[in-house]
Amino acid sequence: MATFSKTLPVLATPDVLVCGAGCAGVGAAVAAARNGAQTLVVERCGFAGGFLTAVIGAGFDGLVDSRSGRVVVGGVALEMVARMGLVPGATDAAQLRGMRFTRNADLVIAARQVAEGRTHLCSDPEKFKLAADRILADGGARVLYHTQVVDVITAGTGTDARIGEVVVANKGGLGCIRPKVVVDCTGDGDVAAWAGAPFDLFERPQPMSLHFRIGKVPASPQLQQRCAEVLRRAHAAGRLGLYGGPWMSSFAPDEVYVNAVRLLGLGIDPEQLSRAEQQGREDTWRIFALWQEELPEFRHGHGPGRRHCGSPGRRQGWGDPGGPPNSVPGTPPGAGGDPENRRPLKTQSQERSADFPLDMVPAPYL
Questions:
Q1: Would you state the torsion angle of the CA atoms of residues 193, 197, 200, 206, taken in this order, to the nearest 10 degrees?
Q2: What is the helix (H) or strand (E) element at residue 127, kind and residue range?
Q3: In the chain, which ranges are E strands?
Q4: Is residue 263 included in any domain, yes or no?
Q5: Interatomic CA distance for residues 258 and 209, integer angstroms
Q6: Is pLDDT of 300 > 60?
Q7: What is the domain extent for residue 217?
Q8: Which of 353, 360, 330, 362 is nearest to 204 (CA)?
Q9: Structurally, how many domains does the chain consist of?
Q10: 338-354: pLDDT as tens digits
Q11: What is the H or E stretch that residue 283 is in?
């Protein structure tokens, strides 16, 4: 063990500190700032968006009802879709509300639902980054990019415990932020966990994934189904281990975006996360090679462009009176996580079955 002692400068004293500028963080920060709170956002990447940008996500999961395609989530989320200009002719959220959209951007699912009269909706990583910068600035939120939360300093004990400062690191070195309220949108509940709030870890966590894009490939639902068959045969022959889908989309006419890599491990363990990154790259290139062997569309494809491993909801936080009352994982002020009722704060993993299949083969296109 080693003891580290240093006097840290107080970099800011905002009303609200939002840790993480993913989708939840953008929503929390904009809502807080628009309601008059002096708001600061810290984000480890050089841009906002989280899953939709750093990991590469194509679909706005949860924005619409899967069965009807009707919009069920409005507010900042729907405003972001309008600001990104993803739907031709729709310049504000009010125009989007009455429309019916595809439930995600998967090529097979989207093609079928477009044929049923829905409007195709697919994100765009670069448009999201720019729209997020603008909506945060317009709302009055200050942002510090390339800034990593590394620790918290708490005061008091038991039900009186509170987060006093959040320690961050960036090119300026170590510093701390002293907010009145902390909103933990780190994705893994890091701030709440480091502050001593109780949490659960799933015995069988959702596998991590590494999404990738391949250029010079004409994306289509038919190609996606043929890609699935290639992976199924390779898995049966022992040439490919754990994988999923594949679920595929496209951000441009001559490229395909792929979600197929599946990696076992606990994403909050530094060793396991590092090995997952390495294995994810091996699996990405193995999948690409298999498709190049059997599918002419991939013969001249540009090698995969990758993004970070991601596995949402690895920590399950609880709104607990014994935890720091000014830190609620992923929840803006007044939006939930009721400590009086000890209500669990749901994460994406909690919505999935406890029997999530670890060794996945091509899923039916529901």
A1: -40
A2: helix 125-139
A3: 10-12, 16-19, 39-42, 142-144, 148-155, 162-170, 173-177, 181-184, 199-201, 212-215, 243-249, 255-261, 302-306, 315-317, 327-329
A4: yes
A5: 10
A6: yes
A7: 212-306
A8: 353
A9: 1
A10: 222 222 333 333 333 33
A11: helix 270-294
